Amino acid sequence: AAVPAGVLALLGALLWAPWRVLHGAPLAELSGDQDFQLFLHKNLEFTRKIKGDVAALQSVVCDTFQLCKEEELLLVRQDLGIAQVPLEQCHSRTFQAEACFSQIRDGLHAYHGSLAAVLELLPGHAGLVETLQLDAANLSSNIQQQMEDLGLATVTYPTEGRDPLPAFSSHFHHQVGGFFILANFQRFLETAYRALRHLAHL
């Protein structure tokens, strides 16, 4: 379905206009604008919570396997084929609301699957990993619901090369794979957080 021009125009205003200018603009194009702001603020908090849980798991990987510094593991990374889930549609220069939301939603789905490798690696921390998977699924579904509420076109981005998980040739490779899944997820969440905060623009 085509995206209503008024919705895109308003999202553009939310993104770029100074708030005092936007405040005087007619907001009739986007029904339930307060709901949209509530969605943004609620999910900013949710994203911050998920980032904290990823950081906690990164600390566990550091303490358990002494895998703490990315630059020391870059050569091993080349053998693993673990790609960063793209979020180029959420960068300010190329920002498009429906494309950014779609990439966040699809990326969360991809990381939900990738976390299975971390679950295998850290059975003693299964509760935290499973909570993270549940939170990723819930945030993805929140975004999908909000896109439908706004009448935004949903775009599905291909996930070739990221799913299924690579087969790790050794336990050490599995450990390093878990390290990079978490490091990539943390970067992904940082970008998603900035995009949501940019839209909130308060």
Automatic annotation (TrEMBL):
Keywords: Disulfide bond, Glycoprotein, Growth factor, Secreted, Signal
GO biological process: immune response; positive regulation of myeloid cell differentiation
Location in or out of the cell: Secreted
Pfam families: GCSF
Signal peptide extent: 1-24
GO CC annotation, single: extracellular region
Recorded GO MF terms: cytokine activity; granulocyte colony-stimulating factor receptor binding; growth factor activity
Main location: secreted
Source superkingdom: Eukaryota
Family indicated by similarity: Belongs to the IL-6 superfamily.
Protein name per Swiss-Prot or TrEMBL: MGF factor
